[in-house]
Amino acid sequence: NQVHKYACDISATLHKSARIFEQRIEDQWILFAPDVAGLPVVVNDWIHEVLGSFQNGARVSDIIIAYQARKDFLFGFDVIFSAIGFLRERGFLHKEPSTIPYSISTMQEPEPTSFGVWLHINNSCNLDCSYCFVKKDSGTVMSPEVMERTVLALVKTAKRHGIKQVYLKFAGGEPTLVISHMEQFRKLLQQHLHKSNVELHSSILSNGTIMNKRLLAFLKQPDTGFGISLDGYDDSHDIYRTFKNSRRGSWSAIIKNIGILKEHSITPHIMATISKETCSSLPELVQWIYENGFQTRLSIVRETNCSWECSTKRESEYQNLCDTMKEAFDKAFCALEHPSVSIDLRIALDICELQFDQPARGVACGIGRRHLVIKPDGNLVSCPMTLDEEGLAPSEDFDLLRTCREYFPYSPLERKYDTIENDCLSCRWFPVCAGGCPVVNKRVHGHPFTKSPMCDFYTYIIPRYIQFFATKLMQSAKQNKNWPLSIISKR
């Protein structure tokens, strides 16, 4: 992005944000504002110097005059004015001094214009992964009556709240085992939402082991995505993801099916779930992902030893998990930092529930607000990890967002911590992780809004990801004929 696109109020007094992450990288500077929408940027020395001019607050016009008076400053008014405008727009300069700790009261989300639906359409699965959060393979599948009732509830909820978009995910179990049910549900929901001018985006969350003409036809419909869960690369993937009957690993079957998808111009999204046992292959996995032009979310198995059972060694077990994951992710980033690896930084990589492009507003996900998790019996639970709970039946007025909030009544305003210094609000990275997964926190610490047992991993991986992002950004810019740019950014 060229600097001349930006502007600001020349009479304003601005302050450098105390929340910025800034670090030298080669002959440039990384800048990232965790509390403001926008990905990391890279700037050169003089723009970083301009930012520092507002350390104690300064009037924009005074800074411009001071720079224009310098004999060693070669740029005109437009360039310095636009640079300040850029720094203001990206949240590095504020009208008022910004400090840490953060205040959740200023982070509350407006009413949603969209919501997500995790439709747990069946329990049955052809794999037998020991860490799976679906513990009961009862063969349960959502009945036609429940499907119709759920569709009507979703439509009424969308109308009541002025929803513009619905993001539907078919999950299980293995949902591709009941493709007729997916077809029926989507067709019914499309018919009702079309009358309401609500956009429907659907996707399937699959283990990738099943492929047939009927599934391909389903995936070729507009606004349909396909996510494939992997645990690692090749043999590492097969440690847990084995077929239920034969006990064979599933990697080779998935690779074959991905080849079929590519033949039909269908690009899957890779959902990688990394454990201590599989993380050694993470560098190979991410290289394979980007060689194939896929996008991915890298998640972690949060149950130590694949179990939520309380242990007297739980604290040390989580520290060991954090240490192991820090090493594995660092090696993966090192592999991806090679100039030969091309990545679209804006969309290609997500890590756990971390939010780099849009600050989290007190909670790391849509739990209890705009994420509906619906069981095969039609009851709602708070999260896919809580599917074994009985859940709550939809309210009589079929307002599923209200039922969602009733089932998870906790507020991020009600935080638990030992000392104020130990509260996540005192951490620079709170807008990125928001204290981590509320369900994990509740199971480990007894409250959803407290310090995550994965905190040590987060505080390492967030700045490491920003460094990786900046490295790839500079590689991309150096291939551009306009290099060197004063400002390098991906919006």
TrEMBL record:
It comes from the Bacteria. CDD domains: Radical_SAM. Its cofactor is [4Fe-4S] cluster. GO terms for molecular function: 4 iron, 4 sulfur cluster binding; metal ion binding; oxidoreductase activity. InterPro entries: 4Fe4S-binding_SPASM_dom, Aldolase_TIM, MoaA_NifB_PqqE_Fe-S-bd_CS, rSAM, rSAM_sf, Sulphatase_maturase_rSAM. Pfam families: Radical_SAM (PF04055). Residues 111-348 form the Radical SAM core domain. Gene3D superfamilies: Aldolase class I. The keyword Manganese does not apply. Keywords: 4Fe-4S, Iron, Iron-sulfur, Metal-binding, S-adenosyl-L-methionine. Belongs to the radical SAM superfamily. Anaerobic sulfatase-maturating enzyme family. This is Radical SAM core domain-containing protein. It comes from Candidatus Fischerbacteria bacterium RBG_13_37_8. The lineage of its organism: Bacteria, Candidatus Fischeribacteriota.
